Amino acid sequence: MLIVARGLSKRYGRDWVLRGLDFQLEKGEAVALLGPNGAGKTTLLRVLAGLVRPTSGSLEVRGRVGLLSNPPAFYRHFSGLENLLYALRMEGRRTDAQQVRAALERMGLPPHKPLLGYSSGMRKRLALARLGLLNPEIWLLDEPETALDAEGRGLLEEMVQAARLRGGVVIATHDRGWLPQVNRVVQL
Ligand SMILES: Nc1ncnc2c1ncn2[C@@H]1O[C@H](COP(=O)(O)OP(=O)(O)OP(=O)(O)O)[C@@H](O)[C@H]1O
C-alpha cells in the first residue's frame, strides 16, 4: 500500500472541507478523484502531499510524492531549462543538463525562453517534464489535462500509465475521459 489515510478531516475556519475520509492507494493503481467545484479534491491532494496538515485523522505515505498543481508554479524569470535544473537541485538530485534538455525536447519546449513567455499549455508541459525528471513513486495530479492540446494530452496519458506501473497515481479531475484509464474512482 502506498497511501493509507483513515478518518481524514480538514476544516478551514468553520467550514469542513473533508470529513472522516478513508482513502487508500495501492501500488500499480491509478485513481480518479471526482467531485464538483469546491468538493475538496485539491485539498485532499495537498494533504496527501504533506503541504496541508489535516485537522484530524491518520495518514501514512510510503514513497516519495510529487504534486502537479493547477496551475503549476515556476520562477517566471528563469528559463524552462533553469527551472528544471533548479527543481532537481532543490530535491538534492543529480543535475544532468543533457537529460533535462532531452526532457524539454520530448515535451516540445524551448529550453532558453523565460517562463514569462510560456503559454499555459507550455507551463503544463514543463510541469510534466519536471515531474517525470523527479520521478516520485506517487504522482498526485490536480486537473492535469487543463490547458493541454491533443498531443500534450497524449504525452500526459503515456506518463500516467508509466507512473502507475512504477508506483501509483491520483488524478483530481472533472474530465470523465480519464475513467477508462483508471482502476478506481473516488467521488468526493
Ligand atoms: N487555504 C484555504 N483557506 C480557506 N478555505 C479554503 C482554502 N483552500 C480551500 N478552501 C476551501 O475549501 C473548499 C474545497 O476547495 P478545493 O480547492 O479543495 O476544492 P476542489 O474540489 O479542488 O474544487 P475545484 O473542482 O473547483 O478545483 C472550498 O470551499 C474552498 O473555498
Describe this structure in words.
With 188 residues, the chain is α/β, with parallel strands linked by helices. It has one domain: P-loop containing nucleotide triphosphate hydrolases (Rossmann fold, 3-Layer(aba) Sandwich), CATH 3.40.50. The strands form two sheets. Strands 5-6-7-3-8 form a five-stranded parallel beta sheet, with helices on both faces. The two termini are 21 Å apart. Adenosine-5'-triphosphate binds next to helix 1.
What does this entry show, briefly?
The protein has 188 residues and is an alpha/beta fold. The protein has five helices and eight strands. Helix 3 packs across helix 4.
List keywords for this structure.
188 residues; single chain; ABC_Transporter_VariousFunc; Rossmann fold; three-stranded antiparallel sheet; Putative ABC transporter ATP-binding protein YxlF; 5 helices; five-stranded parallel sheet; transport; hydrolase; ATP hydrolysis activity; alpha/beta; globular; 27% strand
Class derived from helix and strand content: alpha/beta
Rg (C-alpha, Å): 17 Å
Largest sheet, if any? Answer: 5 strands, parallel
Q: State the strand order across the main sheet.
A: 5-6-7-3-8
Please, how many domains? 1
Shape: globular
CATH topology, anyone?
A: Rossmann fold
Uncertain stretches of 5 or more adjacent residues: none
Bound molecules: adenosine-5'-triphosphate
Protein name: Putative ABC transporter ATP-binding protein YxlF
Organism: Meiothermus luteus
Keywords: ATP-binding, Hydrolase, Nucleotide-binding, Transport
EC number: 3.6.3.-
